[in-house]
Amino acid sequence: MIDLRTDALRRMLAVCLVAALAACSTTQMEQPSAPAAVNPNEFGNTNDPAAGFANAGPGSEEDFILNVGRRTFFAANSAELDSTARATLDKQAEWLTQNPRWLVKLQGFADDSGSDSAQTALSQKRADAAMAYLASKGVERRRMWAKGYGRDREVRSCTDRSCKVQNRRVVTNLRNEYDTP
Questions:
Q1: Could you give the CA distance from residue 71 to residue 44 in angstroms, rounded to a whole number?
Q2: Domain span including residue 66
């Protein structure tokens, strides 16, 4: 007898669910409204070049930034190049060898424990390590110079490890002329 009641209850629930779902459905769909007119001078068009990257042709600075990458990252309190850093610098060396008109400023940064002077020294070692590696791959030393900035110019100011690692870097910047002191 209990089985018959349970079975009847299940059937009643199923009928109620079907009735509830049927009450929610409709065959009349609201037509979507036409989108508001967009002023292309205000927003641009879908296929417009990205702002700042209109000249991303081969050999351009934009090409280097977009297709090669200009940041090399380091472990905490280290100026040693790991395999990822070497792979980045390998791509940079190849591109720089194919585009000899560019000069290269390697800017080192640090965000590690220690005094400001220690961080400036570490950032200089990082920039020097990147420059030495690029030279070992055929980029002429006379085209490059390195400068360590220590904690100046942080990408992000933070205490979280995943955030701090963004500041432990060398940025390879292309130049048309040498910096003046």
A1: 30
A2: 61-175
